Amino acid sequence: MTQHFQRPGDPLFTQRTPRVVAASKLHRRRDREKAGRFLAEGPQAVREALAAGAVRDIFVTEDGRRRHRDLLHGASSAHFSVVTDDAMAALADTVTPQGVIAVCDLRDVPLDAALASRPKLVAVAVEIRDPGNAGTILRTADAAGATAVVFAGDAVDPYNPKCVRASAGSLFHLDVVRAPDATAALAALRGAGLRTLATSGYGATDLDDLLDDGSLAQPTAWLFGSEAHGLPDELRDAADAAVRVPIHGRAESLNLAAAAAVCLYASARAQRSR
Amino acid sequence: MTQHFQRPGDPLFTQRTPRVVAASKLHRRRDREKAGRFLAEGPQAVREALAAGAVRDIFVTEDGRRRHRDLLHGASSAHFSVVTDDAMAALADTVTPQGVIAVCDLRDVPLDAALASRPKLVAVAVEIRDPGNAGTILRTADAAGATAVVFAGDAVDPYNPKCVRASAGSLFHLDVVRAPDATAALAALRGAGLRTLATSGYGATDLDDLLDDGSLAQPTAWLFGSEAHGLPDELRDAADAAVRVPIHGRAESLNLAAAAAVCLYASARAQRSR
Hints:
Chains A, B: This is RNA methyltransferase. Chain A is of the alpha/beta class. In chain A, 39% of the residues lie in helices and 21% in strands.
């Protein structure tokens, strides 16, 4: 059971209470790095954060305390504090907060640690900048059974509130890796026995051919580039194959989230086929 | 070749010029319905709109006129007018407009007309409200080779600027249908020989089973519900099957765009397999 941080009869925390002020700063990447903490907003994210043992503090409004009683009751390790609606508005990234938000420890692991468990399916997002896309890739990779997502190169911060929200809890399910040197990451992935497949609209290999020849059953790391620029040429060339998702109609391409879903689920199916 | 609407030496159109004022109103759904027109912004959308013969007017900035010379040169049926940067800011939905925007005729067709060509693959978006999701479904459906997208029930306006942008031109490639009565649309789809498959996280049928038994090769209409509420129960029950995309990890579900990509590409592959 969670412990109430305030004493009975204490006033609600306001947006000027030092603990709230400190937590509100976690909207900024620099402050997240400095504190080693980030914010997870809403009951779903807080539930997954609690299950992952990542929570340091929980803030709830009086209304949120009533609405999310089970959530607060089910957790054993975290304190919670009741805050004013104004304080919640300062803490929250959404326009209509759901009354509960948690301060969590950053949880990325080194690439070596993620590879030590010999993953069979890994998603690598290279230089992607849009937090919504980053969160969607976490969610889709989790659903497809991938066990690690690598944010490589100069990428969006996976602890950006919009990424946390778009991941719908999956940020707490997977090994999250930040690898500023994408080329070194590619070598490490290959060294761990993963076949590296670079997605590209102009890739020489059609995804359907990989499904036909059965080779997607191998342990695989899928590399996805940014929506605006795709993968850097040198990474695409360094990968084991450059793969295109077939375009059957007249669309120029798929968007990043759709391409990632098609590729990761192609691997998921191939790895589970008899 | 496009014709310049202003005469040589005429001043640039400003945000107070009646033609610009009238076009700016097309940001509002009500005004789009009244005028029967909508806005397509940026060179990619304008190019596809011109190719589809949908363009009535083009507005360009002086800079846009230089940058998009080929685009303006290649079109035969549309007038263009040079506008001030302020006028472009009033016309554009984006913060950094790309200097060209077109007024287009609404282009949805009745469901009967879309079904007359006996489509093999149709996407049906039911009561979806997010314009970005709507545009992504258009783009993904186009890429997967679907030839029609039906917006059923109380759905977002496909001519919303954010939807037009997210569709990346695909709005101009497909038969777009608006069908306020979703139940009647389901009956019409089935009447046209399409197997109707309702996506649901709790569907009784696993997508992999449909891939295994080969039945996805049949002409298929995929029904997708809203991100927040899924498909209405009565529609899910009325469809030929309720299908779940398998979740291999710990994610609760896939988001709408990812689920649509996986399902539509599963059909695309099955319909093309030998």
